[in-house]
Structure formats: structure tokens, C-alpha cells
Write a structure and sequence with these properties.
It is a single chain. The chain is of the alpha+beta class. Among the domains are: 215 residues, Glutamine Phosphoribosylpyrophosphate, subunit 1, domain 1; 201 residues, Rossmann fold (3-Layer(aba) Sandwich), CATH 3.40.50.620. It is 44% helix and 15% strand. The protein has 28 helices and 17 strands. The chain has a 6-stranded antiparallel beta sheet with strand order 2-3-1-9-8-10. A 6-stranded antiparallel beta sheet has the order 4-5-6-7-11-12. The longest helix is centred in the last third of the chain and has 19 residues. It is globular and about 75 Å long.
Length: 622
């Protein structure tokens, strides 16, 4: 994990130095800048040294004759195989880094070389002969890449805050990005909160040359099931083992976020006894302490176990720090816990394995089963389904902070029983649905909402994966939306805030392709939590791993709103709205309803708070 930035078409070391300063947390080990006069360009790099700790692996990295320069963020896990192939073709290497492999691969195969790279990455490769820049992002969007075009100039950076140091970036807000955020809790690429700043979507690369920009997709998730292979589980086990093995490659110590849950425990079972298992508890917050479960798994596997107590801090200052790393509002409050988890873990290791992607691959979310059920009962008359849903909603009232996640899901499920499966899924996956946004938004934002429907993004994905069975279809939609734009985004930003690299074995390209192409019936059995992982790892792990209820890594958002952050919510959420974009009375209504215990509005209120914090900070800098 590192920080990259650059400007093509200008020799501007001052701006690049400012960008690098904004990215220092991503690469605390070193900083380097390279400028070009013919054609004009400037590249900057902040390094977190993981593979080949020597100066030979520093960046921007040139090829042998200095015509190509690379800035690279991430890891190519199969770099040794690609390097071996290149050496047989006559290429010679000066370092042991994976970054140099990208340079030589481009020399050999051009942009087609991207097909050979398996890993997490975002990079830009500048060709000083033509003045062109080739840039790319990994298949699932584990590493970020933001860019802007202004006339004959092109600029890019790993984070929005760095790119905003470029003088040509205006402060004009992109209200489509804001609407997407309020609906999903995140912006949908290529949109961001700023009109001048675009996000390169996952599985895309771009070429910029002489004022012309081309963006292309280079990979797609399987859109239909392939024929079932023999020995499916043996092959699945091999893929998981290979994925974990590749992600243990490093010249620094590697750890694992161990919760004692199915995903992290399965990875730990393959990681080997040398790895440090780090578990963090949050005694200041009323959440389930998983330390005892993690310790049981660590003891069973013979791992070195480290239990860390996170120092208590939840206040507006922390929220502003978190906001600064995203560069725009981000609505998932789990980012708060991940920030503290990464801070505590970085004391012991520089790289950590995580279970991200396990829920998406192995049907870990209740909405997957909800969509599957809705698909089966959609033949029933809509009025009958709606009447039944209204009745079941009314008999189970929301009662305060306890069981908030279950009750919220239950109520959303029942209220959407009359909808199509796809429409219902957009409701379950949203913070504010479109009807609620019509009440919340004012001014230009309300006008844009009159012709723009944020739900179309998810609905289009369901159409794209229509040939998959319902359970696989729901999971595939999450793999290309919720996973990259929500889970992997907060994992990257919150870990990089502390100079920690996080690797996710379940997000391996081959593993993801294999699982999606299998019919759900192969990987799923009713009432068997993550049956596929249980079948493979059941004999290697304590029985309690698969027997206990899934907890999830969620902060007590309702509690924070009513207690620790009560003053922040009361003081900021209900202030007059200077932007003219929000209906403050609607926010007051949501907060009152939440505090009275009539309904769990915690996610809506959290998203609104982060937006108001952003707008407050934004207005200060206009």
C-alpha cells in the first residue's frame, strides 16, 4: 500500500509535493518526485515498503533506458510467475519488487499485460517518448484511483484530498454524487462529490495522451453458471489455499484480523503458526467482545495471539479525521471501528490479512436469502403480499437500541413484501430510498432527483446477472457494488490512515470467478452457516466457530446517537442548512422518531451527520 499522484502536461513539483504531503499516511517510509520537461509531466510517490525494502524498489520507477516511469500502489501477488515468464523472454531485473514486473510486462505486452496481473493495485505508467499515461485499477477496486482532466492537463491521485491540491480543481459539488451517497452510503464511480474529480471504476484502465482520454473495461464477473466440475470442493479448497499463500508474501511481518468468526478463522487455519493473530476489543462501547472466541481459535491453531484494548475515543474530532481520509462523506459507521482496529494493529504488524469478501462469496448477508425468498413468492398477487407485509410489520414494533440490526432488517423486509425482488433489494440496501429523498432534498438537489433515479444502478446489475440463479444473482450484485464501494473502500482508507496494508484472500480473482460460476446449491445448504467453508475447514477449527450466531463487525450506532455523540448530533444535524440542499425539519423528525424508540433511523442519521460535517468543512474552504 502506497500513495501515488501525478500531473501529465505540466512540470509542477510544488503541487505534487503538496499532494504527496496529503498522502504521507499511505506511505510513511519515503517520498520521491520525478519531473519531465519533454513532454511535461510530474510524478509523485509515497512508499510503504513491503516487498524488497531496499532503495532499488523506490518509485517513481524507471525502465532501463528511462523512457517509462511507474507509480504503483498495491501488490501483484503472482509477480514471481510473471517475472519468470519475462526472464525467459530476455528481460533482466534490478530489484525484487513486484512494481518492476509491471514495467517489464508493459514493455513486452503493452496494455494487454493487465490480464496477467492478479492482486490489488492502482497505478499510472508514463511514457516520456509519447507523453502518454496508462493507468489502471484492480478488478474489485481494492485500491483507489481518482483523476481529473482540464484541457491539455491530466492529474491523478490515490485520494480525493490530494487531488484537490491541484489549483485547477473547482469546489463545485456534484449533486448526483450526493444523491447516490444518501441512497447507498457511498458514491458510485465515476461520480464523486466534486464535478471535476472522477473515480476510475474497478476493472478499468485508461489512456491519456495529448488531451484525449480513453477508458476501457478489461474484466467482467461471470454472468452465467458454467457446467459443474468434478471435485468442486477440492478445487475450491486449493483456490483458497493458494490465495492465502500468495498473500503471505512480504519482507515484513504479516498478521491477521482474527475475530473468531467463520471468515477470519478459515484464513487463519491456512496462514501458518508464524502469523500474529490480532484481536481488538472496544470496552468503551456496548458491542459484543469477540476476544474469547478469537483466543479459542488462536489456541486451537497454535497461533501467537495478541489482544489489544482500543483506547476510547468517539467524538466529532475523530469523525472529521475519518472524513478527511475519504475526502467526501462515507455513510457506513463500521469505518469508525475499522479506524480504531487498524490503529491498534499497526503497533505489531505492517500487513494484515482480513476476511473481506467472505460474506459476498458464501452468502453471508440476510438480504441474499431475502431476495431468494422474494423470487420464489413473486408469483403471488402484489396486494396479497403487501397486506401480509403490513400486518407482520405492525405486530413487531421497534423497541429501543437492543436488537437494532435485526429489527431494522425485519421492518424493511416486511414493508417491501409487495415489491418486486429487485426493487425490494434496493430498499434493503439503501439508507434513504427515493421516496424518502424526495422529502429530504431541497433546491437543485431536489430538481436533479426529479429526473435521476439512484436505484437504476442496482437494478441494472440485476439485469446484467439475470442468467444466474436468484441466490447467486444477489451475491454477484454485491460483489460488484457493495463490496468494492463500501467494504473495500473503508478497509483501504481506514488502514492506510495508519500505514497498514490489508490483504483479503477471499477477494482473489480466480476464487471469485469460480464461486460465482457455481450454482448456489453447490455452496449453500439451508440452516448451515457458510456451508462451503464449514465443509472445508470444519475439521480444522473449533466447532463453536460454525455453531455460534454471526455477530458482524458493527458499531452500536443507535447507542452513539443517543449517548456519546448526542451533543454532536443535536448541535450539528439540526443547524440551519446554509447549502439550501437539505430539509432540516425532516432530519429533526428522523432524530425525534429515533430517540423515542419508534423506529431505528441510525443509518439515515449517521449518513446525514457525515454529510453535514462535510458541508460544514467544505463551506469553510470556499
Amino acid at each position: 500500500m502506497c500513495g501515488i499522484c501525478g500531473i501529465i502536461g505540466a512540470n509542477d513539483e510544488l503541487t505534487i509535493r503538496k499532494m504527496c504531503s496529503e498522502l504521507a499516511h499511505r506511505g510513511p517510509d519515503s517520498e520521491d518526485i520525478v519531473s519531465f520537461t519533454k513532454p511535461l509531466a510530474t510524478l509523485g510517490f509515497r512508499r510503504l515498503a513491503i516487498i524488497d525494502l531496499s532503495s532499488a524498489a523506490n518509485q517513481p520507477m524507471p525502465n532501463e533506458n528511462g523512457t517509462l516511469y511507474l507509480v504503483f500502489n498495491g501488490e501483484i501477488y503472482n509477480f514471481a510467475d510473471v517475472r519468470s515468464e519475462l526472464e525467459k523472454l530476455g528481460h533482466r531485473f534490478r530489484s525484487k519488487s513486484d512494481s518492476e514486473v509491471v514495467l517489464h510486462a508493459y514493455e513486452q505486452w503493452g496494455t494487454d499485460s493487465i490480464e496477467r496481473f492478479h492482486g490489488m493495485f492502482a497505478f499510472a505508467l508514463y511514457d516520456s517518448r509519447s507523453g502518454s499515461c496508462w493507468f489502471a485499477r484492480d478488478r474489485l477496486g481494492k485500491k483507489p484511483f481518482y483523476y481529473a482532466c482540464k484541457g491539455s492537463l491530466f492529474a491523478f491521485a490515490s485520494e480525493i484530498a490530494a487531488l484537490r491540491k491541484w489549483e485547477f480543481i473547482s469546489n463545485e459539488l456534484n449533486l448526483v454524487g450526493m444523491i447516490d451517497y444518501l441512497h447507498y452510503g457511498y458514491t458510485v464511480p465515476p461520480n464523486t462529490f466534486f464535478k471535476d474529480i472522477l473515480e476510475l471504476p474497478p476493472a478499468h484502465y485508461g489512456i491519456y495522451q495529448n488531451g484525449n482520454l480513453t477508458i476501457r473495461r478489461y474484466w467482467n464477473l461471470p454472468e452465467e453458471h458454467s457446467q459443474e466440475k468434478e471435485d468442486v470442493y477440492k478445487h475450491l479448497e486449493t483456490l483458497i489455499e493458494e490465495s492465502v499463500r500468495m498473500r503471505l508474501t512480504a519482507d515484513v511481518e504479516v498478521g491477521i484480523f482474527l475475530s473468531g468468526g467463520v471468515d477470519s478463522s478459515s484464513i487463519a487455519a491456512l496462514a501458518g503458526k508464524k502469523i500474529k493473530a490480532v484481536t481488538v476489543s472496544f470496552p468503551d462501547l456496548p458491542i459484543n467482545d469477540e476476544t474469547i472466541f478469537a483466543q479459542e481459535v488462536a489456541n486451537h491453531l497454535g497461533l501467537t495471539s495478541i489482544s489489544v484494548i482500543s483506547q476510547p475515543f468517539v467524538e466529532e474530532d475523530l469523525l472529521l479525521r475519518i472524513l478527511s481520509h475519504f475526502g467526501q462523506p462515507f455513510g457506513n459507521p463500521t469505518a469508525l471501528l475499522t479506524y480504531r482496529l487498524a490503529k491498534a494493529t499497526r503497533q505489531f504488524v505492517k500487513v494484515a490479512l482480513a476476511g473481506d469478501g467472505g460474506d459476498e462469496l458464501f452468502f453471508g448477508y440476510p438480504r441474499h436469502y431475502g431476495y431468494n425468498l422474494f423470487s420464489k413468492i413473486s408469483f403471488l398477487p402484489r396486494l396479497l403480499r403487501k397486506t401480509l407485509g403490513d400486518l407482520l410489520y405492525a405486530i413487531v414494533p421497534f423497541e429501543g437500541e437492543d436488537n437494532q440490526h435485526f429489527l431494522r432488517r425485519y421492518h424493511e423486509f416486511m414493508l417491501s413484501l409487495g415489491e418486486s425482488p429487485e426493487k425490494a433489494y434496493t430498499i434493503w440496501n439503501s439508507y434513504f430510498n427515493r421516496e424518502e429523498l424526495k422529502t429530504l432534498l431541497r433546491g437543485e438537489a431536489a430538481y436533479i432527483l426529479s429526473y435521476y433515479n439512484p436505484e437504476e444502478f442496482i437494478l441494472s446489475l440485476f439485469n446484467r446477472f439475470r442468467r444466474l440463479d436468484p441466490l447467486s444473482r444477489a451475491a454477484a450484485v454485491d460483489i460488484v457494488s457493495f463490496l468494492p464501494f463500501n467494504i473495500l473502500q473503508y478497509t483501504d482508507r481506514m488502514s492506510s490512515a495508519h500505514g497498514l496494508e490489508v490483504r483479503a484472500p477471499f477477494c482473489d480473482q480466480k476464487l471469485v470467478e469460480f464461486c460465482v460460476a457455481l450454482p448456489a446449491k453447490v455452496l449453500y445448504k439451508p440452516h448451515r452457516q457458510k456451508y462451503a467453508l464449514q465443509r472445508i475447514f470444519g475439521a480444522r477449527l473449533p466447532r463453536t466457530v460454525f455453531k455460534r450466531r454471526k455477530i458482524g463487525f458493527n458499531p452500536p450506532t443507535a447507542y452513539l446517537i443517543n449517548h456519546e455523540l448526542r451533543t454532536t448530533f443535536d448541535g450539528l444535524l439540526l443547524l440551519p442548512d446554509e447549502s439550501g440542499l437539505l430539509n432540516v425539519e425532516e432530519l429533526r423528525k428522523l432524530l425525534t422518531e429515533h430517540r423515542s424508540g419508534k423506529r431505528d433511523n441510525s443509518l439515515k442519521l449517521w449518513a446525514a451527520l457525515m454529510l453535514r460535517l462535510f458541508l460544514k468543512s467544505y463551506n469553510k474552504h470556499l
